[in-house]
Amino acid sequence: MNRLIAWLPDRIDRRVRIAAWVSFVLNVVIIGTGGAVRLTGSGLGCSDWPVCVPGSLVPTPEMGIHGVIEFGNRTISGPVLLAAIAVVLFVWRIRRERRDLFVPAVLVLVLVIVQALVGAFVVWQELAATLVGFHYTVSVVIVCITAAFLARMVEPAGARELAVPRAFAVLTRITGVVLAVTVVVGVMTTASGPHSGDANVVRTGVDAELLAHVHAWPGYVLAALLATLVGWAALKRLRPLRWLLALLAVTLVQVAVGVYQARSGLPPLAVGVHMILAALAAATMTVVVLRIKRPVTTDAAPDAAAAAASAR
């Protein structure tokens, strides 16, 4: 055990960076494969959990391609869990000085385990729409946390200070709330739409067309807010500019995909792209929020600590 602990990194090295990126990518991939399960009607391709079908861990020929698709999505859960464990282990020795990395690493591991349990209930409850929506939402949260880990990993630990005007920071956080609302309403819209994962699944009963219009409203507000933030950041050369540009680009593509899918009868591929882009937009928004602060310089750190103590 001592040899293992001694082998673990005592700083942010290549192993930490690779494990963190693998964790982020795999959690995005599993959203895509989970979407493929629903969009191909393969939600009950494996009718049991943790086995695929009673008496068999893997899909049987009788399950056809749907069994292969659902089992493939389940299989990715293993690497997702292993990557989460690896990240926790690789920051173990620096857990005290880098709590900003250790805490999110542990949170991701816990949520990945929770996701496995939620997935079991999704199968046992035969793809209940609310459970499926919750399953996706948790995946988006995990992607955001892994993105936050990546953003903090490249910066030093310690105190942070506001790097933008306070009004800009407030508007950025408001934009984050609008993005969250957009994603949640999007999940509700999907839960009432036709792509249930299986032809026999009962949907929520809410008018999907009405929800699609409601979903569009915060999406347009989000695009307007992002355009405002990009213009402001470009004018003042603010720290989050590059990430805001990336987020605006993703959002505009999202709007285009959303309009296309609504006018084209919700083609499965477009819906799948929309799901993945929503997760990537949420992850990018997370990084933008983190970028409104910067590490306190060494010279300024004592003053910042004194100010914090005085405020307390």
UniProtKB/TrEMBL annotation:
Topological category with respect to the lipid bilayer: Multi-pass membrane protein
Look up keyword Disulfide bond and say if it applies. Answer: yes
Q: Where are the transmembrane segments?
A: 21-41, 76-94, 101-124, 130-151, 163-188, 217-235, 242-262, 268-290
Report the pathway entry: Porphyrin-containing compound metabolism
Q: Where is the protein localized? A: Membrane
The domain of life is Bacteria
Signal sequence, start to end: none
**Alphabetically ordered keywords of this record:** Cell membrane, Disulfide bond, Heme biosynthesis, Iron, Membrane, Metal-binding, Oxidoreductase, Transmembrane, Transmembrane helix
**What broad class describes the main subcellular location of this protein?**
membrane
Q: Supply the name of the protein.
A: Protein required for cytochrome oxidase assembly
Q: Which organism is it from?
A: Agromyces marinus
